[in-house]
Amino acid sequence: MLMHVLGKVWNRGVNAYGGDKFRPCLYVLTSGVHNGQVHCAPRSFFGVEDFLDDDNSRPYTYQKEKKSKNPTKHVSFKQRTVAYMEPFTLDVFISKRFVSASLTHRVTSKQVAVAGTNSKDIKAVLRSRSDIPACLAIGQILADRAREADVYTASYTPRDRDKFEGKIRAVVQSLIDNGIDIKIYLD
Q1: What is the DSSP pairing of strand 111-116 with strand 153-156?
Q2: In terms of pTM, does the model score above 0.90?
Q3: How confident is the model at residue 115, as a pLDDT?
């Protein structure tokens, strides 16, 4: 059967231009190395012959990194030094079920002090794990743990979706009342 099909294709004269004359060509895969000559093999499944991106560095399926519009953009002194001048940041997370807060070192990305209402020792004492008294307790416990780690100042920038009011303000105010100096950056 295969010989019959190949014979028909050969006799029909499927042609490819090779030099100064037309010669019959079968759709047979040739070597994998593309040396600049016309191959008689069909194109790939996706219709892409060369699987590399513009820079010929990675396969086209990888996401390209974003290139800066201005690669020589000036970075200010404050942008370069703020991580060292104010090394600790406060992170507060409040959900419907629990409250969590942590102090993180910006340069090393290590958490210095952590407190949350999901921990066993705090969970047993509190009546509710997500109300204002729970937020005040988390602030007090976090301040004690921060003082043990010799952290007395931190900066806090609310997330985009968070407003600085209610439970978040209670946690920050409790930290301030217990001796931790918090610098708050609102837009």
Answers
A1: unpaired
A2: no
A3: 95
